[in-house]
Amino acid sequence: MSSNMRPLREIRYVLTGLGNIGRTLLELLSAREEPYAERYGVALRCVGVADSSGAAYDAAGLDPALVAAIKRERRGVSALPQHDPDLSAAALVAEADADLLFEATPTSLADGQPGLDIVRAALRSGKDAVLASKGPLVLAYAELAALSDSGGNLTRPRMRFSGAVGGALPTINFGRRDLAGAVIERAELVVNGTTQVILGEMAAGRSFEQAMAIAQAQGIVEPDPTLDVDGWDAACKLVIFANAVLGQPATLADLRVVGIRDVSAEQLQAAQHAGGRVSLVALATRQAQGRYELSVGPVALGPEHPLARLSSQEMGLVITSDLGGRSTLASLEDGPVGTCQAMIRDLLELYGPRRG
Ligand SMILES: NC(=O)c1ccc[n+]([C@@H]2O[C@H](COP(=O)([O-])OP(=O)(O)OC[C@H]3O[C@@H](n4cnc5c(N)ncnc54)[C@H](OP(=O)(O)O)[C@@H]3O)[C@@H](O)[C@H]2O)c1
Q: With respect to CATH, is domain 9-168+337-351 assigned 3.40.50.2000?
């Protein structure tokens, strides 16, 4: 450790959800404790964790490497000595002496739970929240924005969710921060990895079932694959983008959503022969009155389209704005690590060093 290190700021966090995302995040934070302390001046202390087996709290700190190891052995929080059988995840978050919630429980489009109550508990008890889960944002964006700084009141706890819309692809940050001052005319997002793989494999001659098996082997398919295939995962991301970036209070009911089930091998091959590809595109187009028309569906992208250059493993976006022209971003990510990086950048945006 360098001798001229700035004084450390302790950040106490609770992590709910210890699956692909939560466990990987713990491993990364535990392995990078020292460089993050040195570079950003933060000392991260995990004080609470929860999974489907229960919750555990220790004001003096839990060992993140131990928690991750327990999860790798397919055991649960109930195996920790600090496990409290009477403590729910939401109660843990409400009662913990902590600064920050990392939320990575499963996304439910039925009621947003368990994440919705967990995020409410964090914001109502004055804690900042960094979400990977989409359900709370899709079903209750306006409510959570009003409880947090996302609604414009900067004295409220802060809410960040850059990993919920395309993992490491900085969809939300780019739209909100880097295109500040410009009016977005059109946003095209390829943000569902499963359909990108399936359509790519089918264009290469595999059947839908074979292509789905390849995507599943990569670990990128939602537990309920219909969410990917029927366009709902992309639709969720577009709803969050519309609320957070376009300032339009959209819900899933406002979108026209078509999945990829009816895309034929002939259509895929025709697009490929023309030098392009078919992708599932989440699209927002600005209408004359300033509102955005929102849709999700398969699009044959011609060879001149920047998103036609994406490989099957990549996600990307093209945003056209009045002042910024056409901006293109693409991201090639490896499993859940990209989403964890997004959660870490949110953390560092909130607590990293600032000028002045
Ligand atoms: N995977 C990705 O690449 C990715 C990318 C962006 C966003 N996301 C979002 O991030 C979230 C997590 O994804 P994931 O892939 O990590 O999911 P996952 O592997 O299914 O993990 C979900 C975790 O939540 C825990 N859990 C379930 N019910 C709970 C409850 N009632 N209280 C507390 N914990 C509970 C599970 O416990 P057990 O371990 O005991 O089962 C598990 O640890 C999802 O909302 C997903 O949509 C995922």
A: no
